[in-house]
Design brief:
Blueprint (H helix, E strand, L loop, with lengths): L1 E5 L4 E5 L20 H8 L11
Antiparallel strand pairs: 1-2
Length: 54
């Protein structure tokens, strides 16, 4: 998991970057995923394989 701290906002942004070719898919927390473990399970689904996933 990668992380960026935004000092002015005193906020952290965290993301997982899975490599792949083709279009990039961006998964937004709270829209079907509630944790990193859910994200990995969904991003690995056969219908979603091949592209980069964030």
């Amino acid at each position: 998991m990668r992380e960026l701290f935004l000092a002015e906002e005193r906020a952290h942004i965290r993301w997982i970057d899975l490599p792949g070719e083709g279009p990039v898919r961006v998964f937004v927390h709270g829209l079907g995923c509630t944790a990193a473990s859910d994200f990995a399970h969904i991003a690995a689904h056969p219908a979603l394989r091949g592209g980069r996933a964030l």
